[in-house]
């Protein structure tokens, strides 16, 4: 594993012929794929790339990131370091990402040296939850009622306008429940003190305020689109969250064929409107009234599709490599129902905070169960450390098996 000085400028001048040659056709196996982000998604994408014969370069602030153990090179740098981004791309035939927080400047600088998929124009919209939701509504995609707030006073006005329990979410960053506030869920009026506390919870900065919905379930759809315009839509995944963190997910979701087709049509429409190059996970709500609403977009592999490695002909990780390198996309039809359960750092921790070793042998005794760990060195409460997966004759059987195995830990 090697490192690149964060302040170092690219070592040679920009040559338009270099980029033109990279854009003129697919990046075939044997080439180098760059990945912004070295977390578990970058790791699993990198493993898929290596199995296809690619070399893998990763940029991440942490030199001991999970992807670092499988990468040829790690560029140790932050998401706003445009020179490091250029140095990553200069050595690669194509660049993709596993995290949305990479700065637009870094993405644009990298694009001077290699095709970056997905690109900066799309990321600039998705990085801001307010702009993302406004883009969805403006382009006719179904969303729940929302308001934008840029101040504590506007947050109070949004709560009044939406007239019911609401979620407030920071416009930038935040995931797995971070940077969020719940207001009005106890049935009483939201007073000034609650507004002030909620404003601090979202970072005292721009946020989106969304009316709480009566949900039947949450699903997601993964769609892939190549630079050549080929599109593949995966079967829907059904997701269950605990404390706003994904607990388990199963492919396929238990929804009607009509609703699954509607969800696929929405995801395809979003991909085509964005002119997506890469992967896009579309998180959706199914209300108790049967309405399908878009929640959020993630332009990368997604936790809810870890099971695609066993459920579908082509995993989301291989598909991400294919799309980034402009190869023909892989078939995504269902092979067998599959469920995954996340393993958070809590599994490694006793109540007093001391560490313990989970009983992986007991979990693996459950039929069809497999274990995937991310090589994160330190368990923390709420930190995703790995996942279990299981298959079954039905989605329900796969879910029961993976939850049984998790309980055995």
Describe this structure in words.
The structure is a single chain. Strand 11 (237-242) and strand 12 form a beta hairpin. The protein has three domains: 16-116, Rossmann fold (3-Layer(aba) Sandwich), CATH 3.40.50; 145-211, ATP-grasp fold, A domain (Dna Ligase, domain 1), CATH 3.30.1490; 215-408, ATP-grasp fold, B domain (D-amino Acid Aminotransferase, Chain A, domain 1), CATH 3.30.470.20. The longest helix has 18 residues, at 257-274. Mean pLDDT is 93; it is low at 4-12. It is 30% helix and 24% strand. The chain is of the alpha+beta class and 409 residues long. Strands 9, 10, 11, 12, 13, 14, 15, 16 and 17 form a nine-stranded antiparallel beta sheet that branches. The protein has a four-stranded parallel beta sheet with strand order 3-2-1-4, sandwiched between helices. Strands 5-8-6-7 form a four-stranded antiparallel beta sheet, sandwiched between helices.
Radius of gyration: 21 Å
Query: How many helices does DSSP assign?
Result: 13
**What's the helix-strand series?**
HEHEEHEHHHEHEEHEEEEEHEEHHEHEEH
CATH T-level topology of the largest domain = D-amino Acid Aminotransferase, Chain A, domain 1
Structural class by secondary-structure content: alpha+beta
CATH H-tier superfamily of the largest domain = ATP-grasp fold, B domain
Q: What is the highest CATH level, the class of the largest domain?
A: Alpha Beta
Name the helicity range: 25-40%
Based on Cα principal axes, name the global outline: globular
Determine the mean pLDDT. 93
Domain count: the total is 3
| Shape-level CATH architecture of the largest domain | 2-Layer Sandwich
